[in-house]
Amino acid sequence: MKKILLYNGFSNIMLEVIVWMIYLKNQGWSIAEIALLEGIFTISQAIFEFPSGIISDKIGHKNALVLGEVICVLYLITFFFANVHILVYVGFILFALGLSLISGSDVSILYESVEESEKQKYLKYLGYFNFIGILAMALGNASGGWIASYSWSLMFIIAILIRIISAIIILSINKDDIKSASSDDTFKSVIKTFISFVYKEKDFRWIVLSMSFSSAAITISYQYGPLIMRDFNISTQLISTVFGSISLVASVLVLILYKITKYISEDKLIVLLQTFSLGIFSFFLVGNMIFVLVGLIIVNIIFEMWNILFENKIQELAYDNARASAISMATLCESIILTLGSYCISIFSKITSLINIVSVLGMILLFTSLVGMLIYTRNKVKVNKLQN
């Protein structure tokens, strides 16, 4: 498990993730073009997510992670050719494929590394896993802008080296340390297993709906947050530091999440956190820099808490040879929503401010997520009454 945690740390040091929009804007890209690029990325994720989950369950989660890291290296190389737009488009399509292979495979390999007698503590281990990942993200977010202020090329070179190290670490994991290295089933049987899972586990559908809509809301604020902050004349270095601080605080919260759920149920905690975030998005419409800055920090911090709870629910429900596929289904739905969101931003950016668009989109998505969560909890109550 130690190597899996170490891999997660390196894999999440993504120096470019906060500042790439600023970089492309400096290279002459317009907000509409950047939104279009983001739309291409998200629609590519939507296309790749489910197939990549099936592939991961078939070839093994370890192999899927290595392949994903290699593809992400190719994506990073395209930033050196920012003036060749078509090449950057291809790069982001590759990035979507790489992340799709990593998404779901990482938490699945973690779950498989936990002994059967310890499965009830998976949420605790997932907390450690995310704690390290978020700390790494904080390091990447905080340092990316500072390195870029010295040299954009140096930042991308370091990002490439980090991806290579991540691949080496995951390659060094012993197959005996994980429950399942790969499946002997055919792709057809893996798909049938997943379809059977979705059909039988009806709660999974509502979990996916709530998880994907809420994730999309926060992801939009995270993706476009740097551009919003630049509109307030905040420097690239400070933007990088702010988002690094967000990850740092979030890492502490996810570490103690296991203890929090002993006092308040997971379902209630998710509803409370999402309701609070919905209120924060509404305050963005005021347009005050302090409200926006503090709001972006808070929603991105507490999102990490409810997202872990959703991942735990999916892992508890999923069948052994359909784990990555189950996570991929949630990410697929999120990608579709993000694609539509980027399309809306591209259109309405010419009519109103970016902060207004992000605010309204965030409220709509979080409200939909809350509806799905409330239906899920109501169904659980009905089932419990019938069983009693």
Automatic annotation (TrEMBL):
Residues 1-380 form the Major facilitator superfamily (MFS) profile domain. Coiled coil: none annotated. InterPro entries: MFS (IPR011701), MFS_DHA3_Transporter (IPR053160), MFS_dom (IPR020846), MFS_trans_sf (IPR036259). The chain crosses the membrane at residues 5-23, 29-51, 63-82, 88-110, 122-140, 152-173, 206-225, 237-257, 292-310, 322-348, 354-376. Pfam families: MFS_1. It is found in: Cell membrane. It is a multi-pass membrane protein. Gene3D superfamilies: MFS general substrate transporter like domains. Keywords: Membrane, Transmembrane, Transmembrane helix, Transport. Its main location: membrane. The keyword Nuclease does not apply. This is MFS transporter. It comes from Apilactobacillus apinorum.
